[in-house]
Amino acid sequence: MRLKHSIPSMFLSGDRTVIDDSKKAGMPMEMVIGNLFKLDVWETLNILLFSVFYVLSSMADQHTGLYPIVAKSLRRIAVGKDPVDWHIHTCGMANMFAYHSLGYDDLDELQKEPQPLYFVMELLKVQQPSEYDRESWALNDEERLKTVPMLHGQGNKLFKQGRYDDATLKYKEAIMCIKNVQTKEKAWEAPWLRLEKMVNTLTLNYCQCLLRMEEYYEVIEHTTDIINQHPGAMKAFYLSGKANMEVWNEAEARDDFLRVLDLDPGMKKTIKKELAVLKMRMELKNEEDRLKYRGMFTKMAREQESLELENPDQEISEQTSPEQETNQGKQIQRKHLQSK
Hints:
It comes from Cyprinus carpio. The protein has helices spanning 22-25, 40-51, 67-78, 92-99, 105-112, 141-160, 164-182, 190-212, 216-229, 234-246, 250-263, 268-310, 312-316, 322-339, and strands at 2-5, 9-12, 18-21, 29-32, 55-60, 117-127. By secondary structure, the chain is an alpha+beta fold. Strands 1, 2, 3, 4, 5 and 6 form a six-stranded antiparallel β-sheet that branches. The chain is extended, with a radius of gyration of 35 Å.
């Protein structure tokens, strides 16, 4: 069942500075009974809330060093973001050390110097499992993995309908479900690799949507990550080639397509067509560039010519006029007669 609270408000001991308040955020905090809570004190509070009280406060001075990480997830939920999207590849703690900041000054300060916290919770509503749809971040590992095929299928359907933006959301949610499970497995061992294969399949579907959305550089980024980890991923090379061709990376696109051919000779007809398209596009671009630069140089020459016509006195002033030549001749003649 799910408990919905209007709070928590968290206070530092002493001055009781408010750290988080879900009333101000405009979104109640939700907790699912049966899931392990990040903070042990929340487990106690929820049991007491459900069985006895409607409003309850408690002070916690142990294990609250984890609260800043939990708080970041809660703040992301409040603004409609995935609470776990910020630590895709590692756990929250490892990610914090990798980037040296949680992105909030107050949480960074609390992380450096943990203090006792007050948690105040008010119970608003209790829902049975059949009364609400659970979001992927609230599922346990088994439930997450069962959700993946459904999300995958929904993404494929949306892709076929041309709803690429909606499809990316389904693929991304499925990826996050798997990543949350994968982080608990030892890297490169069989269970981890099985999940990695699932992630790569979904990521490449995600990239196909990005291609249609003309997000070419993001496609290159994702496919490059896959290729670096799995150099035999033929589809990653193919999508990378398509993206590189769109951004005029001729050499990279050609290398990607030829690598596809090495990995799957059955793609010969398709790759031949892609290489022909690449050659034609580059020839057209080179011709366009040639005409553009020629036009640019012609324009520069005309502007220079126009500038010269607008300033005729500049050249004349540097020359000797007929009157000046006559005067200079008379002066020379007088000097000659005086010398005699």
